[in-house]
Amino acid sequence: EAGVAQSPRYKIIEKRQSVAFWCNPISGHATLYWYQQILGQGPKLLIQFQNNGVVDDSQLPKDRFSAERLKGVDSTLKIQPAKLEDSAVYLCASSLDLGLRVNNEQFFGPGTRLTVL
Amino acid sequence: ELKVEQNPLFLSMQEGKNYTIYCNYSTTSDRLYWYRQDPGKSLESLFVLLSNGAVKQEGRLMASLDTKARLSTLHITAAVHDLSATYFCAVDNTNAGKSTFGDGTTLTVKP
Q1: How far apart are CA B16 and CA A113, in angstroms?
Q2: Alpha carbon A6 to chain centroid distance?
Q3: How far apart are CA A84 and CA A6, in angstroms?
Q4: What is the DSSP string of A58-104?
Q5: Does A27 touch chain B (CB under 8 A)?
Q6: Are residues B17 and B79 in contact, defined by beta-carbon separation less than 8 angstroms?
Q7: pLDDT at A60 over 70
Q8: Domain residue spans in chain B?
Q9: Which of these ranges, A106-110, B86-90, B93-97, has the smallest mean pLDDT?
Q10: Which residue in A41, A52, A63, B63 has the most C-beta neighbors within 10 A?
């Protein structure tokens, strides 16, 4: 079974530039998450989708970050414009089904390491 | 707001020794997860604990959950170098349907 795919793996940009990340979850997983992980910290949830609807985006800086999951499968996360403090690893994860609220075990992709200069 | 605290944040231990990592959380939940992260890598699921008193074991690692104390432990038995990694616990906010992660415990096992 293929895991969660993410691209690119690394990205270096200058502040005020734009960047986009892509994620393809495990086939059949209804729930998709984007996390920001700053060095030395745990992952912080940015946005959570169930199918193509947003479940939680309370910690997404909406003035500069946006995300979509149009067909309920793959997803993109965009930052425009980037700031220095956005330097982090952006992790995508998926889980089977949140609807039953039984098991929210998440499967993570390899992450995208973003450096903002 | 659900808060998750792990301790210790850093742990250096010798091979062959035993130790326990603690994960405390602030609000009621009966679903807790442990993940492992190697340097420069992504997170890998280790244990899923879905009820009070749940205990899971895999090799030299054993995880347990006490929902009344809002505490989970990850016990390491006879540590080996291959266990060196950062371990995260994540707790489900059952009302909000999302997980909150602790800041991780970085374990270094020395020969």
Answers
A1: 35
A2: 9
A3: 22
A4: TTS-TTTEEEE-TTSS-EEEEESS--GGG-EEEEEEEES-STT-S--
A5: no
A6: yes
A7: yes
A8: 4-110
A9: B93-97
A10: B63
Q: Are A65 and A57 in contact (CB under 8 A)?
A: no
Residue A71 lies in a domain: yes
Q: Closest residue of A to B38, CA-based?
A: A110
pLDDT in tens, B6-54: 999 999 999 999 999 999 999 888 789 999 999 989 999 999 998 888 9
* Position B36, amino acid: R
In a domain? residue A89: yes
- As given in the structure block, the two tokens for residue A5 are 């795919």
Q: Tell me if the domain spanning B4-110 has CATH number 2.60.40.10.
A: yes
> Number of folded domains in chain A?
1
Q: Are the Cβ atoms of A43 and B101 closer than 8 angstroms?
A: yes
Assigned domain for A116 exists = no
* Residues B71, B72, B76, B82, CA torsion sign: negative
Q: What is the pLDDT of residue A98?
A: 56
Rounded average pLDDT over A39-53: 92
Query: A39 — contact with chain B (CB < 8 Å)?
Result: no
pLDDT reading at B89 higher than 90: yes
pLDDT of residue A17: 98
**Interfacial B residues in 23-52 facing A (CB < 8 Å):** 31, 33, 35, 41-45, 48, 50
CATH number at residue A105: 2.60.40.10
